[in-house]
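Q: What would this complex look like in 3D?
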Amino acid sequence: MAKRIDVSGLNAYYSSFLAIEDISMTVEPRSVTAFIGPSGCGKSTFLRTLNRMHEVTPGGRVEGKVMLDDENLYGAGIDPVAVRREVGMVFQRPNPFPTMSVYDNVAAGLKLNGKFKKSELDDVVEKSLRGANLWNEVKDRLNKPGSGLSGGQQQRLCIARAIAVEPNVLLMDEPCSALDPISTLAIEDLIGELKERFTIVIVTHNMQQAARVSDRTAFFNLAAVGQPGKLIEIDETERIFSNPSVQATEDYISGRFG
Amino acid sequence: MSHATLTPKSRSSLRGATLPKWFLWAVAAGSIAAGLGISAAAGLNSSIQWALIAAVLFVLGTYAISARVEGGRQAKDRVATSMVWVAFIVAVIPLASLVWATVKRGVKVLDGYFLTHSMGVVADAEVGGGIYHAILGTLEQVGIATLISVPVGVLTAIYLVEYGSGKLSKAVTFFVDVMTGIPSIVAGLFILSTWILMLDMGPSGFAGSLALSILMIPVVVRSTEEMLKLVPNELREASLALGVPKWRTILKVVLPTSVGGITTGVMLAVARITGETAPVLLLVWGTDFINANPFQDPQESLPMYIYLQFANSGGYGAAYDRAWAAALTLIAFIMILNLAARGIARWKAPKTGR
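A: Here is my prediction, written as structure tokens for the whole assembly.
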């Protein structure tokens, strides 16, 4: 069920401001692709173009092609709501729905879309929570509010919520930046397991994390503030961190700038 | 009294002299005593005068003593604090005295009989009668106004916050602001000229409800708008990213998150229109008999009952007592609404507990 993403000639705008320019890359299925780069270079913006969340921002628009297997996400007649069911997303800050219990949070994607059977729901919730390595911690408090969990648990709850709708691709926007090292480790382990089933794209500011979890790494950069962000290179993670083909990548990774 | 608390100024730069906690109470008691003393000496007999003198003495006294003992910065801090206290008391006194006066005069005739009977065959000067017809009228008129205003107001607010951009939403915001400032008599005249004069309808509770909803809609829009803006954008994005359509996101995530605040806003708007007299006087006319049908013939309402009873009483007698009892009922009714709103807000608020 994991799908390949093929991006070509993608520009993203905020009103008239060009945020990212001419990005082309391939994201392999059943693998983890990490996006690294300095702040403001458009990693998150690019990530959000992959499930049409960019256009939710007022003034946000996109030019170019994003192929999910053989379907262009920006083609005519494509329903952004349907795209987001295929391409799930986990955000930087854990954002469980505050009015819902742990159970309802995980079931939210199915419940809010109104197509579920009561009997199946229990199974889906348990499976998703197990998938997110959270089941043992919350199985006795499924009816307690989701916002009562710790930050790391909340983030895994959000991952469980995202995988409960069985997407093909999972986008993660700095999922560990608000978490402590132990919760981070738990989520990194989880990413390793999830890549058996999903195509995973992760934005991270943590170079070690990119090196630990990803199979391929893409480096983004911008020429100057106010200039659009660009993809500098994408390659096997090992290559990027040992012998990148562009000097800027090496400078960034070794901490010489940015 | 402050000399006992004087401590020698310390040399340490981090440690300064501090006045004890009872200092403020002592100054307050001292200035009230001084205020009373000065007024007695000067032959002033208004309680407002001695209270003002005491308030000024309190602020000046805290400043002078604190400046001497604690230094300039702390003295300014104390002055700001004592001004806040004085302002608080000035704000509470009229409120408390109003409630006290209403309760004292209202309980005289307020009983079960009063709440369950109308004024049908009771002359103004006679003892007896009640406000059943007025309570019924108020409930129906306010209920219908709420049924009209809440959907219109909440949907307008949803449009403004979730969908609106550009000229239309700016225009809507502007007109809502303008509507907030409409005097209630103007709303009443508007309905009078359209509903009763142009469309040739008779006076009825419904006509009053129309005018009341003109007053209520902007309040509901404003408060709902503020509540919807408080919902974090992350929740909307989380829901959209799950492939939930926007309208369902609003219905199932945004509204439940803010329902407590919206309910509070609606209840406050209801409380505001319940006390309106002018439009009711113009459009519902009032009657001494029970009329349960809000769509035909004049009805009574609580504020109008109070006004008419008081106007016919000459300031004493049975009608005067009934006016106060009805006022107490009205205040109690609005207070119960507010308490209910708070209860709902607390019950529906997003839970954070473990």
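A: To summarize the key features: Residues 227 and 261 of chain B are 6 Å apart (CA to CA). The domain at 132-348 of chain B is CATH 1.10.3720.10 (MetI-like fold).
Q: Very helpful, thank you.
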